[in-house]
Amino acid sequence: MKNFNQLPEFQKEFKRLGSKYPSLSDDLIRFEKIITEFPTGIGKNFDTIHNSEKVKIIKARLACKSLRDRSIRIIYAYHKNKVEFMYIEIYFKGDKKNEDMGRIKEYLRLVV
Questions:
Q1: Is this structure's pTM higher than 0.90?
Q2: Confidence (pLDDT) at 2
Q3: pLDDT by residue (tens digit) across 83-107?
Q4: Separation of alpha carbons 39 and 42, rounded Å
Q5: Which of 37, 57, 32, 35 is nearest to 47 (CA)?
Q6: What is the DSSP string of the chain?
Q7: Closest-CA residue to 25 (of 47, 46, 55, 4)
């Protein structure tokens, strides 16, 4: 079984978006099934933004039924040695243009 964890900032963002988009919890469960089988994703909806020996940071599109399958962006870390996932950030592309690189760099600084 894979381990899924969340940064506190992610939890706040998820709660805020979840109240706006009720299907988000179910959408995340479907997403986790995909990345359990393909940890770095498959297809054009997954983009590696950091790759090291220990950890990969992936930016992915999470299909959201409440948005009629338009996507929410989700940033997560895949720790290869531990087979563990850490959710770093989640946002709606219409609200925010890009990921928080400062948060990603801070996370990498703590784990590497």
A1: yes
A2: 61
A3: 899 999 999 988 888 999 999 999 9
A4: 9
A5: 57
A6: --EEEE-HHHHHHHHHHHHHSTTHHHHHHHHHHHHHHSTT--STTEEEEEE-SSEEEEEEEEEEGGGTTEEEEEEEEEETTTTEEEEEEEEETTT-SS--HHHHHHHHHHH-
A7: 4
| In contact, 42 and 34? CB cutoff 8 Å | yes
Closest listed residue to residue 40, CA positions, set 15, 57, 61: 57
Alpha-carbon gap, residue 11 to 8, rounded angstroms: 5
The pLDDT tens digits for 15-25 are 999 999 999 99
Which structural domains are found in the chain, ordered by start? 3-111 (3.30.2310.20)
**Tokens read off for 87:** 């959710």
